Amino acid sequence: MDIMMMILTGVAVIAKVIIAMEEGIIPATLHVNKPHPEIPGLLDGHLKVVTHNTEWDGGYVGITSFGLGGTNVHTILHSNNTRKPQPHPAACTTRLFTHAAQTEEGLSHVLATMREHSHNVPMQALLQESSQMSLETHPYRGYTLLNSTDVVDQINVSLCLLLHVLILSIAQDLYLPWHVHQICIQLREERL
């Protein structure tokens, strides 16, 4: 296992603990059918493996990671005891949400997800930053209305940009990114 995989494994454990703290649920341990016979604490009941999702009021969590190369990391995390903030004043009002993506499917998925979580104003603010991404990397632009009784979605692709990229790539014999190539094929088929 290379060093990057060890780092990512540790980050995944920390992320799992933080999510458990935020949700107030200790997730079940997978693939545990019976206690290990060489761990007396499990056999006599002093220790218990969590085999189903368990409600949790928070507290301290110890994380230990033993690496193959002798890299051992130990840390203690504590749950945030402050109360969750009050809902944003605009959480229930009708709002415009804009987003940019590399593919039409990706954009449709984000718009649908945002409609499902329409009261989550911080999520909207985070995702809406994609609107500032370059047209070259995120040619699909769209919007939807949140908290509206009408489902209003609009998805557009930047045609001027695609034609510009296509002309440049042909003229300079450049590699055309896969998603841009697929969009050009789709547009050509629609025009025929």
**CATH fold-level topology of the largest domain:** Alpha-Beta Plaits
Beta strand %: 15-25%
The stretches of 5 or more residues where confidence is low (pLDDT under 50) are none
State the name of the first-level CATH class of the largest domain: Alpha Beta
Please state how the strands of the largest beta sheet are arranged side by side.
5-6-7
What does this structure look like?
The chain has 192 residues and is of the alpha+beta class. It folds into 2 domains: 3-78, no CATH class; 95-191, Alpha-Beta Plaits, CATH 3.30.70. Helices cover 39% and strands 19% of the residues.
Write the layout of secondary structure elements.
Blueprint: H1 3-23, E1 25-26, H2 40-44, E2 54-55, E3 60-66, E4 72-78, E5 95-101, H3 104-116, H4 121-128, E6 140-146, E7 153-157, H5 159-171, H6 178-191
Helix pairs in contact: 5-6
Q: Keywords for this structure?
A:
alpha+beta; Alpha-Beta Plaits; 192 residues; two-stranded antiparallel ribbon
Short account of what is shown:
39% of the residues lie in helices and 19% in strands.
